Structure formats: structure tokens, C-alpha cells
Amino acid sequence: MTPNLVYVVVIGVLFAAGVSMVLERSLTRVLMGMILLGNGVNLLILLGGKAGSPPIVGSSPQEEMADPLPQIMILTAIVITLGMTAFLLALAYRSWALSGHDEVQDDVEDRRIMQLAERDEGSGIDDTEDAR
Amino acid sequence: MLLAILVLHAAAALLAPALVRRIGNNALYVLALVPAATFTWALVRRPPVAETYPWVPHLGMDLALRLGTLSWLMLLIVSGIGAVVLAYCARYFPDGDPSLGRFAGVFLGFAAAMTGLVIADDLLLLYVFWELTTVFSYLLIGHRGEHAAGRRAAMQALVVTTAGGLAMLVGFVMLGHGAGTYRWSDIVAGPLPAGSATAAVLILAGALSKSAIFPFSFWLPAAMAAPTPASAYLHAASMVKAGVFLLGLLGPLLALTEPWRPVALVAGAVTLLLGGWTAMRQHDLKLLLAYGTVSQLGLLTIALGAAGRAAALAGAALLLAHALFKAALFLVVGVVDRLTGTRDLRELSGLGRRMPVLAAVAALAVASMVGVPPLAGFVGKETLFAAFEHDPLVLSALAAGSALTVAYGLRFLWGAFARKPGVQAQSPPRAGFAFLAPAALLALTGLAAGIGASWLDGVLTPYADLFPGPTGDHLALWHGFNLPLLLSGVVLAVGGALFALKRWPARRLPAAEAVYQRLMAALDRAAVEVTGATQRGSLPFSLGVILLVLVLLGASTLLLTGPWETGVRLWDTPLQLVAGVVVAAAALIAARSRRRLTAMILVGVCGYGVAVLFVLHGAPDLALTQFLVETVTIVMFVLVLRRLPVRFSARPLLASRVIRSTLAVATGLVAAGMAYVAVGGRIAVPISGDFAEPAVSYGGGHNIVNVALVDIRAWDTMGEISVLVVAATGVASLIFRRTGALQRRRAERGTTQVQPEPGPWLRAGDNPEAGRQSIILQVVARLLFHTIVLFSVYLLFSGHNAPGGGFAGGLVAGLALTTRYLAGGRRELNAAAPVDAGLVLGAGLLTAVGTGAAALLAGGQVLQSALLDVHLPVLGHIHFATSVFFDIGVYLIVVALVLEILRSLGAELDRQHDVAAREAKRAIERQKEPV
Fold first, then answer.
1. Quick one: pLDDT at residue B743?
2. Which ipTM score applies to this complex?
3. A94 CA: distance to closest CA in chain B (Å)
4. Phi then psi for B272, rounded to 5 degrees?
5. Which of A1, A35, A82, A110 to mutate to probe the B interface, most B CBs <10 Å?
6. CA dihedral for B376, B377, B382, B387, sign (positive or negative)
7. A60 close contact with B: CB closer than 8 A
8. B708 torsion bin: left (phi>0), alpha (psi -120 to 50), beta (else)
9. Residue A38 contacts B where some CB pair is shorter than 8 Å
10. What is the reported pLDDT for B269?
């Protein structure tokens, strides 16, 4: 198959824009980045199949039909994205309501381990004290 | 029968806690019947016995059980001593000890695993049981989990024996791979498989670590943190014997490899001497026995690792003798500990006079241990000396070790029972018969085994005959005057002198334990460093690493596989270029935008543009769904963003912005490159070419995409709608967070149901938000609502043959609800959909699952669809596929998802906002009031 240049370029732009948004800390922004990335991935999958007329039997000869398989997968992906968007939006709102912002914070446990590493200490998992 | 024994043990283990709870400590007598019955069966039934049950046929793995002479002996030891120790536990544990139920269950579970270990014929099966014993011993050692020492000891035993066990597994796999079978009885019959030497070393590592042989000895004394009966059973009679048992089992073949004998002999000799030496220095009676056990295991390793006929015979006899006397001695320590409250020999005095029976039992067991005729220990040791008569090096090690054994044996007796000057003599309560009987039984059995040496010789010879060597050696009490007898005498004399000569200073912590602790600390440090370096706890960092890997892998693959000989076409129609430019421009501006609303609208434009690209590629179903989803998404965003700050929070620093942009551009380039190369490189014929015909004949529809969703890939769709249900529930639970939210939600719904009168046609009158809403919009929304819903139902049913289907239909209905909400607020929404969204979600899922189940009940596969023809009076002839019901389920779930979103992100946020505004207003008024 010969690739369609417009689609290839659009995929690249969607990925780049999506990644640049995903790499930030504001959850709503991350979410928008995910949506852009998702669109890019959907197009990438779509491009894997042949373009053509709608895959509806009887509306056109089978040889002219677009490949239905990528479409089936993408349809699922689109609707899942809707569910995920709703959930993350609720999460962002909750975060804002509780802490006044919707930024993704650093993981406290990971921070603690990094501090241990900086101080050249072990995790102290070896029990030394009796439970009361 | 062998399988029945295993099942019986496992069942007893499961029942034990309940039984103990019901009838208290006496339950242990009942439970002891299981190993006792096994013992009786084994005593009557002689080897060989073999049974095979299919287990994992496609791996060639069977439940292959086999009872050879050695495993028969081990089965007797494991079941016999298990029964005795269980009976002992009934008196050892105080009445009503809450932890006894758990202990009994784990103990029997251990007994089951140990039984399985000795009767397994398949090496992998053996490994499974081997590790099970490790796990159960972990639980038993850590039985007193509230003590740090117990937890540490349990962890240490687990780490050491599991590490050895893993090495052993590799050895087993090498052996089984080389031989082409894992059945030991088959492997041993064939020649030595290739690579056996390495396998032998690995297996030795496993066996020696399990038996606490040098350099792995240190875990066993620490494991004395276990309750004494558990120590008696695990760390004297059964589990630590697993290692030497394995040596004895695999010896007939693996001793042919180079490393086997030297490793076993050297490790055994070192352990024998080191253990005995350390035992001399202990003050704690239990620790003394523990180091004595380490020493004796060294002796057994020499005997069973030497792989000679006489040594093997002696090893088997010593295996039995050691189990009997060491278990008896542990039980004696348990009695002393329980009655006096101490195990420290510096505090014990005068017990011998106070408890003569106990002292006699201990003396009998020690006599067997040090090799006094006519006890079992003497018989074994005598034959062992004879076996190494011509090997002065090993013989001298054996003699020296035995002399140390005599010394610490005497020290034990002296320490526990003698009167010591300057120490207050104790007068503990007397031990009852039931508490003493188990130890006495074991000690007396040791005596009987010694006297019945010729019988023992008869039953153990078949095992010894597996090994090469002169056939003259026998187990007997009297061999005449010879070197072994002389040695026995000398050993007793020297040992006695060693004990009398010197009061030994106390010493703890052999070097190996320090090494272990340093190793564990280093491992811990390394884990902290690695985790600290890789888990930075920052989402952008983690994502960045993942994307970087994608870029590096993708780019290198792309560059290495070039040059790509694909042509390129600019576009199919110029319309694609227009849509493409819009999408690209919107995406780029969105990425740079600092205002939430702007970014969101641009992302929406992007989505619509992608929908156009879908259409132009021949995917109308996708485009329809994408349009609808994008619309719902925009509504959702607006609902939430109206509460969030206008701008995104502060931008990251310039340097990190540059890194991010670089990574973003690189990812974009790689993605575009992959799209270009993958599409151009496609040569396979798509599988979907075969979809068209069955879509009509089986699926009963012309729209291939829709038929596939509800038929070929129905399982996939089922998973997807489940995700939607979870997402909807998650959204609701994140937003309705205050207490009483659920009741309020029900009550709010109830207002529309309870009022029998319909009330005013428009809700704006009684709506607190009336001022913000347009009446005209409300009227239009009302008028359009039913039309849109009807259209959504049309989409649902026509989807089988034209673009549409459950998803699209559900989204359209959801948008109808959205219109009502946007026009009239939450009351209007409740009027439009006077149901709980959760109920609709459930109904949808039920419909979908019910369709699948109905197909199953009708004799088809789950979710298989059938074509039905029905003739209805008015509508006429109807032809439809049952998968349409599945699609109805999808429709309901999507409607409910949108409804839940509107209720949560819309109505509930409004309410929370109103409450907050009211409170703020009240606060201001309060400030204005004169004080």
C-alpha cells in the first residue's frame, strides 16, 4: 500500500502536540494531551487498513471497500476514551476541590526512597523492634 | 493410596483450626491420627509402591508418586514422629492458646508437604513440595510473629533455603532436559545425562542449604525461635532431613559426576566439626541441640553423600536413629522449658532428682546420640566407621566429630539435670504422663531399633544395594573386635574427657551469619539506590522515560531497516488536505495555549477534524461516533472547567520546556515515520476480507463494522461496556463525596416521582437557577427532546445495516439529555430522565450479559447470535439478529454513562456551587450586622 502523506503528517503533529501536553503537571492539560494522542493513535491504526468506500455490504463492490477491521478496533477505542475522559475530569475536579489545584503531585513514597538513597541508607526492612 | 495420604493430610490441615476451636487441645490427638494412620500403612506395606495420576498432560507433568526403600524410611520417620509430636503439642500448649488452631493447621500442612516431598517421583513435583515445606516452615518459625527475633529468623530461613531451592530447580531442569524426562525412576535407569556435573553442583547447593550444611548452617540455630515442638519436628526430624534425603535419593546416579563426592564429604566434615564445636559453647539447651543437629547433619551428609554401599547403609540407619533421639531430646527441652520457665543451663539445677523419668528418657536419647551400645545410634555409627576404614582422613574427621558429640551430649545431660553448686535447685510441678510419654516413646524406639539391628539390616539393604561396594557390611550390634569397635571406645573416652576438661566460654554468631547479614544489608542498599534512581515519583519523569525508550527504539529500528522503497501519495481527495491542515493547526495551537477553555475548544476542533478524516478514509461509523463523543467531551469539559481557574498553573522552567518540546517533536517524527513505513510495508492480505459474506449470512447485517462489534468481537465489546460502567460509577463516587450524598440524590429524584401532579410544564418557575436560563431555549429543548430520542432509537436499530448502532444511538440520546440539562438545569434533567443512572447501567449490563447467557442456554456459544423471523400483526414480517439485544444493552449503558456525567459533573457541581455561594453570602451579611 502507498501511504497517504496528509495522514502521516497529521499523525506526527498529533503525537507531538499530545506528548508536549502530557508531559506537564496540570491534570486537565494531561488529559487534553491524552485525547490528542488518542486521536493520533486512532489515525495510525486506521491508516493500517485500506481506504475505500464504507464497509457496508451491498453499497459498493467488496474490492472498493475500506478495511473494516481497524475501524472496529478504533470504535472501541473512541468510546473507551470517553469513559476515561469523564473519569479523569472528575479526578481533576476532585483534586482542585481538595487542594486548590489540579496538579499531579510527586509520589511521597518515591520521594522518601530517594532521600534514603541520598543519605546512603537502607530501607530498614530488617525488623529490629518487637511489635507491641 | 499414596495420593489418598496426601489428600488426607491436606484435608486435616484445612480442618485443624475449626477442630481446635471446637474441642480445644485434645483436637491434636484426633489430628495425630492422620500421620499415625500413614505410619501404620507404611509399616505394613513394603516398597516399592508406584502411582501415577495425570496432572498437566501438555507439559508431560504427572502426579508421579513412588515409594522406594529410602522414601519408605523417610515416610515412616515423617509420619511417625509427626504423630508423636502432635500428641505432645496437646500438652505443650497451654489450654485455650488462641494461636493453637493456626499452629495445628500449618503443622499438618507442613506434614503434607513433607510427605509429598519424600514420595514424589517427578523432580518438578518434588521441587513443588520442597518449596511448600519452606513456606510452611517460614510460618512455623515465625509463629510468634510479635517477636522481632522470630520474624527475622523466619525470613532468614526462607531466604537461604529458597535461594538454594532455586539453584536446585535449575539443576533439576538441566537434568530433566538432558535425560528427556523428569521422572527420577526413569532418569536413574539411564546413563548420566549431558551437563550433569553442573546440575549436580546446583542440586547440591539446594540440598545443603536445606540441611543447614556449611556454609548455610547459620539459619538453623536462629530458627529455634519456633515453638519447641515445631523445632523437634522440622529442625530435627523432617525438613532438614530433606537435604540429606535428596543426597541419598539422587546419589546412585549423580555420585558418578566429578564434584558430587568431594563437595559432600568436605562440606559434611566441616559442618560436623564446626557444629559440634559450637554446640559445646551454648548455654541455651535448645541452641545446644540446634548446633548438635547441624553437626549431625554433617555426619549424615558424609554418610549419604559418599555413595558407597556400606556408607549408605550406615546413613540410612543414622537417618532413623538421629530422628528418634533428636526429636526426643527436643521434646525433653520443651518439657523442661514449660515446667521451669527457662532453658538456660546456668539456671537449672537438681532437675534429675526431681524428675527422674524425664532424666532417664534424656539419658537414653543421649546414649543413642553418642553411640552407646545397644542403641540405634551405635549401630549406625559403627557401620559408618567400618565404611571409611580405609580412608584415614574422613575417618579421623568422623572420630573427632563423634568425640565432640559425646562432649556436648554430656554437657546437655549435665546442664539440664545435674545439681550445680551455687545454683538454687528447682522444684517445678511434675510433668503428667501424657506430656512425658511422647519423648519416652521415641527414646525407647531408638533402643528397640538398636536391638533389632538385624531386622533393620534386612529392610534397609535394598537401598544400600543401589550403590557399588563390597556386600559384606551389615548393620549389627556385634561385629567382633575390630577397628570400629576400638574407635567407638576411644571416642567415648575422649568425648568424656573433653567434657570434663574445660568449662567452655560462650560463643555466638558464626561468621557465616555475619556474611549473610552484610549481604542482605547490601541488597537493601542496592535496592534503595536503584529504586531511588529510577522511581523519581514524578509523572512527567516516568512518562518521559517511557517516551524516550519509544523514540530510541523506534528511531533506531526505522533507520536500520531503511531504505524504504515506498512511494507516497499526497492525498486521496484535496478535502483531506483541508481537514489535515485544520487538525494540525488546532493541535499545535492547543499545545501552546495557556488558557484552559481555549485549549479545550481547540482539542475539540481537532477531534471534529479527525472525524472528517475518518469519513474521507471510508469509515462513516467511526466519524459518527467521533462527532458524538467529541460533543459529549466538550460538554463535560465545559461543565468542569467553569469551576476551575481560567489558566493552567505556572509553566515549567525554560530548560525543562526545551527538553519537553524536543521529546515531543522526536516522538511525533518517530510516530509519523512508523506510520509511513508500516503502511508502505504492508503486504499481507487483511483477514477482514473474509468478513463481508459471514456478516450477512451469520450476523444478519450489512454494516460489517457494527456486526463485528456485536458478533465477532462481542467479547471485546462486553469488556468495553464493563469499563464504561466502572468509569460512570467512578465519576459519580468522585463527585458525590459528602456524607448523605446518596440520600440527597435519591430524594432529588423522588421529588419528580412522589408528586403525582405533573406540575408546571416548564420547571424554570421553581428553579433557583431560573435567572441564568433562557425560557426559549428550554421550550425548544423540550420540543426537540423526543424527536432526538426517537432518532437515537432509529440509529440503534438501523445500525446493523447502515452507519449507527448502540454506541452512536446511546450518544445521541445522551446528547438529548444534555440539551435538556443545559437549557433548564438539574430539575429539567431530572424531569427528562426520572431514573437513577446506576439502575440504567445495571439494566444495560444485564441485557448484554443476558443475551450472551441466552445463547448459551439455547445450545450455542456465549454471545453467539441467531437470526430470527417473526410475524407481528401490525408491523408485518420482521427479520432480525439476536445480537440486536446485545446492542440494546450497549445503548442503555452509553445513555446511563452520559446521564451519570450530567448528574455528577453538572447537577451535583451546581448544587455544591450554590451551597458555597449561599454560605459566602451569609458570611458577608453576618459581617454587616451590627455587633
1. 54
2. 0.91
3. 7
4. -55, -50
5. A82
6. positive
7. no
8. alpha
9. no
10. 94
B 472-531 near A (Cβ less than 8 A): 520-521, 524-525, 527-529, 531
Residues 6+ apart with CB under 8 A from B567: A2, B680
What are residue B284's DSSP bridge partners?
B344
Best B582, B663, B688, B815 member to test A by mutation, with max A CBs in 10 Å, is B688
CA angle A86, A88, A90 (to 5 degrees): 70
Q: Which residues of B touch A43 (CB under 8 A)?
A: 610, 613, 675
Rounded Cα–Cα distance for residues B212 and B241 (Å): 10
User: Which whole-number Å values give the CA distances from B71 to A5, B67, B68, B94, B315, in the listed order?
Assistant: 73, 6, 5, 35, 13
Compute the count of residue pairs across chains A and B with CB atoms less than 8 Å apart. Answer: 373
pLDDT digits (tens, 9 = 90+) for B730-743: 998 888 865 455 55
How buried is B240 (Cβ within 10 angstroms: 0-12 exposed, 13-18 middle, 19+ buried)? buried
H or E segment and range at residue B16? helix B2-23
In this predicted model, what pLDDT tens digit does every residue of B469-493 receive, in sequence order?
887 788 887 777 888 888 889 999 9
Q: Residue B632: which of B836, B802, B816 has the closest Cα?
A: B816
> Distance (Å) from the C-alpha of residue B829 to the closest C-alpha of chain A?
18
Cα separation, B435 vs B426, in Å, equals 19
Please give the Cα distance from B418 to B398 (Å, whole number).
29
The answer to whether B426 and B340 have CB atoms below 8 angstroms apart is: yes
Residue A78: closest CA among chain B residues belongs to which residue?
B626
Check: CB of residue B243 under 8 Å from CB of residue B168: no
- Of the CA atoms within 13 Å of residue B662, those in its CB half-sphere come to 7
Which cell goes with B625? 461516533
Which residues neighbour B87 within 8 Å (Cβ) at sequence distance 6 or greater? B28, B29, B32, B434, B437, B438
Going from the N-terminus, what domains does chain A have, and what CATH number goes with each? 5-54+63-118 (1.10.287.3510)
- Quick check: helix, strand or coil at residue B605? helix
Q: Is A99 on the interface with B (CB under 8 A)?
A: no
Q: Does B590 touch chain A (CB under 8 A)?
A: yes
Q: Which one-letter DSSP state was computed for residue B879?
A: E
Distance CA B188, CA B206 (A): 19
Q: Select from B528, B540, B696 the Cβ nearest to the Cβ of A25.
A: B540
HEC profile for B613-659?
Answer: HHHHCCCHHHHHHHHHHHHHHHHHHHHHHCCCCCECCCCCCHHHHHH
Q: Which range, A16-25, B674-683, B760-769, is most confident?
A: A16-25
**CB-CB neighbors (< 8 A) of A11 in chain B:** 671-672, 675
Residue A131 has pLDDT above 50, yes or no: no
Residue B186 corresponds to which amino acid?
D
CA–CA gap between residue B162 and residue B432 (Å, rounded): 40
Confidence of residue B746 (pLDDT cuts 50, 70, 90): low
Q: What is the pLDDT of residue B507?
A: 57
User: CA of A45 to nearest chain B CA: how many angstroms apart?
Assistant: 9
Q: Is 80 exceeded by the pLDDT of residue B771?
A: no
- Quick check: B619 and A86 CB within 8 A? no
A116 interfacial to chain B (CB closer than 8 Å): yes
Q: Where in chain B are the domains?
A: 259-523, 540-561+570-676, 714-931
What's the pLDDT score for residue B521?
83
